[in-house]
Amino acid sequence: MNMNKKKVCIIYTGGTIGMVNTKNGFAPKKGYLPEVLSQIDDLYNESMPDWDIIEFEPLLDSSNIAVEQWNQIGHAIADNYRDYDGFVVLHGTDTMAYTASALSFMLEGLSKPVVITGSQIPLSELRSDGRDNLITSVMIAGQGVAREVCLYFGSRLIRGNCATKSSADGLIAFDSPNYPCLAEAGIEIKYDMPHLMHQKDDKMNDTEFHLRELKQVSIGVLKIFPGIQFDLFEPIMTEKLKGIVLETFGAGNIPSTDRSLLHIIEKAFRNGTIVTVCSQCHSGTVKLGTYETSAALTKAGAVSGYTMTTEAAVAKLYYLFSCGYTRDKIKELMEENLRGELLK
Ligand code: ASP
Fold this sequence. Notes:
The protein has 9 helices and 18 strands. By secondary structure, the chain is α/β, with parallel strands linked by helices.
């Protein structure tokens, strides 16, 4: 037995990778994936780390994943943290970028790789992309170079909280529009060392590894569109929601002919709601104040999401509210880079 062999824990939550065709369409099947993995010889290759698998009960289509399951995944990692060199989370692609973002905040003081992956074609079908996604993710988790939450898909390793699902059917299904890929897996896995998270960049670096459970917080995402009638949204924005991600035009613009949104934001802010401004554009940054149409947002109390994806902004709101910070602290931290999720 090779005592220096790395050990990786595979956490299987569900998703296409382990699904089988049923009369109602693809669905996960208990016990199926561990059985398939036991038949993939490459997973037992000498250069592979040793691995174990934890199968969730019930297995989920990731459209059904929310705070409770994020906490379950977080616990699966935290409870096994000392015993493994890295973790691979097998997950459906639909909400993978949200889960990657959530885990990046929840796993405070993380110093081991957590690689989230899945596939567009199940392992049970011809031409499955699951095989490479899985094998390479296990290698990356064992190598211990990218010691952060990342997402591996279609030969690219992406920072988890910078990822977004960009294709419903392509095998390169995720992009990192505002941050370089952390590694490319060609003949070799080539890491982009300067862009990896270094422990000194992590604001939680001085804390020992620790899981921050998320709480159910009422969060909403509102996409601005031409002709939007803001007054229809007033009751939920000012009374129901604690955090709002506003998907605005371009660099953070909203229509300025209708002033009601600003009154709504002011009122929401007074009530303790945090309104975060993100962009509908996939790449580039929000710059409040560049145009008259965005300057008013800052005055009304909204915060800039800069380059954050909507997925990261939603997860960060859950996280900061779960930490129990005051409204002013949350407002301040939303604009700070905590885990490499935003560039200013
Ligand atoms: N609906 C599936 C899921 O997210 C899609 C996938 O895994 O690709 O669980």
